[in-house]
Amino acid sequence: MRMFGRLAIAGVVSLGFAKPVGADASRCIDVHFTPSDSLQIVVWLEDAQGHFIDTLFITQQTGSFGLGNRPGRFDFNSGPLWPYGRRLNTFPVWAHRNGQSFPSVLFQNDTSQDPSYCLTLAPDDPAYNACGENQLSHSFGNSSHEMHYCRPLATTDPGWDTMTCATQAFTDKGIFSTDPSMTTGYPPRTDVIASAPDSPSVAMYKSLNPYDAVSQPTPIGGTLTTTPYPVPAGLANGDYVMFVEVSKEQDFNDTYSANAYPSPPEIAYGNYGVAYRGQPSVVYQVPFSIGSASTLAETQAYSGYGDPNGADGTIRSPDQTITTDKPASGASRLQLVADGSDMYRVRVEVGENSAADLPGQPASFAASDVTSSGMTMSFVAPGIGMPAAKVAGYEIRVRANDAMTADNFEDSTMVTATVSPEAPGALQSFDLTGLLPLTDYWVGILAYDGCHNDGDLAIVHVTTADRASGEVDACFVATAAYGSLLANDVELLRHFRDAWLETSVIGELGVEAYYTFGPAIAGVIGESDLLRATARDLLRPLVRIVRRLAF
Fold first, then answer.
1. What is the spatial distance between Cα 81 and Cα 65, in angstroms, rounded to a whole number?
2. E strands of 92-236, at which residues?
């Protein structure tokens, strides 16, 4: 089974994409825009009659990690890497126009098999909190290790808004609805390897998702971003429209405020997270042509916005409810870019794709500063042709416990979109973080040109280090006693803490005391084999009790 930690890499300037099947080597479409921070973005192509053709790019949270099709009601609160709540309002226009249909993913214990049923219940209805789609906490038997999202946090928790997970989380990965009317245009997540607590549906998630190859992490705000797209064979010359739909949580204004779209009422764990539903998605449209000559088209203005609750795919006309005069908000989520006398928010260029010279292979690819949770990767920048020109970008992927090859590179986990390219021969580097200790990782990198013609792949195999003696995490004493946060008993105890202790006043007090005194105790235990053995003996009865509760 492959296991992945959380991965991070800096320096995004342009985005890599899988080539369409049967791409025509003579033409290429480039879409340019400069995002503000923390956006969800999707780019797609339609013909002039409104027929959907292809998705060029989608941010990874929706394209790979199931943001639009995961368990939980859509108006659940939000927080750092929040695990639950299908965000139907992320890209409602795209989701209703892309021609795809996926079964909705529900919590495994949602006996109604219908999320709309939960939304119809009044808070004083006895069935309200028993309805699975209203719950943030789920049984051990329905929850497996979480390798991407974090457990829900209260805003008073120390880890709030850090975009990291203090401890290993367990989540319900869901089950497909059996109601044929319960479908959605959003794909399920692709990163889960099914395990015993998961439903049979989980094994199907990756095979059903067609967007993993064009999914990329959110571009860094303020950075000019380019999406290259080789023209597919058979795409006729003529008129087309490029669409960019952009969403942002908590983009509030007077119309779309936390009071107007509040947290769901009377939800258990209602103090966890914050209301997120601000202004709806905004849509930019650029009509352009594909022909024998190179063309350029652009727009400065948004063309409309999506349904605030994601109920339909209608583009609503611009009006006074959408902010237009505040940077990074509403219609200005994509920045206004100056290019000489031209100004644009989205630009579409159609040009030649000669592919006469392919990028070289990144040289001297190697790892350094390898720790139990991360490493630094470096390489010498390749070039294109002679004299060597700078490449357009890099595609970087990682694979754990399973050797990477050229054949499975596209199936491996995307680390980031690109590293900022430098002149040929320059030494470049990036960091991988959030890895697991004593784990084999294969890291692959290739360079591509301005129309995503790829060079040769370079691959490095690295094994992360063991945890340092006495190194502990937020489950201090148990981790020190067992020597690794991956020990099964440590994970079980942590799960018990998250799912049981923190749901009662007494349990919360116990956890707070544990966090106050635990690190000092763990530091002593971690350095002594005798004390570690003693701690394991003392924890053994508690482990037996927790196992009975869990199974």
1. 10
2. 102-103, 105-106, 144-146, 169-171, 175-176, 183-184, 215-216, 225-232
Mean pLDDT, rounded, of the chain: 81
Which residues are bridge partners to 349 per DSSP?
A: 30, 296
Furthest CA-CA distance within the chain: 77
User: Percent of the chain having pLDDT more than 90?
Assistant: 46
The answer to whether 23 and 320 are in contact (CB under 8 A) is no
Predicted local confidence at residue 146, as pLDDT: 87
Task: Choose among 73, 94, 71, 107: nearest CA to 189.
Answer: 71
User: What is the spatial distance between Cα 340 and Cα 338, in angstroms, rounded to a whole number?
Assistant: 6
CA 407 to chain centre: 24
> What's the rounded Cα separation, in Å, for the pair 65 and 80?
14
**Alpha-carbon distance values, 139 to 133, 144, 291, 498, 499 (Å):** 14, 10, 58, 11, 8
Can you name the residues that pair with 448 across neighbouring β-strands?
A: 393, 454
Q: Considering only CA atoms, which of 37, 43, 164, 153 is closest in space to residue 93?
A: 43
Alpha carbons 353 and 26: distance in angstroms, whole number: 5
* pLDDT value of position 253: 97
- What the block records as the tokens of 154 is 């209260």
pLDDT tens for residues 28-61?
899 999 999 999 999 999 999 999 999 999 999 9
509 sits in the region (left: phi over 0; alpha: psi -120 to 50; else beta) called: alpha
Classify burial at 96, counting beta carbons within 10 Å of its beta carbon; exposed 0-12, middle 13-18, buried 19 or more. middle
Measured between alpha carbons, how far is residue 263 from residues 90, 161, 257, 258, 379 in Å?
17, 18, 11, 8, 47
User: Using CA atoms, how far apart are residues 104 and 449, in angstroms rounded to an integer?
Assistant: 38
Cα–Cα distance for residue pair 198/192, rounded to 1 Å:
10
Phi first, then psi: give them for residue 11, nearest 5 degrees: 100, 40
| Separation of first and last alpha carbons in the chain | 23
CA dihedral 6, 10, 15, 17 (to 10 degrees): -40
Better-scored residue on pLDDT, 265 or 204: 204
Peptide bond into 80 cis (omega under 30): no
Structure-token match 């880890």, residue found: 159
What is the pTM for the complete model shown? 0.73
Pairing status of strand 282-290 against strand 440-448 = unpaired
Q: How confident is the model at residue 148 (pLDDT cuts 50, 70, 90)?
A: confident
- The C-alpha atoms of residue 61 and residue 189 are separated, in whole angstroms, by 9
Mean pLDDT in residue range 190-201: 90
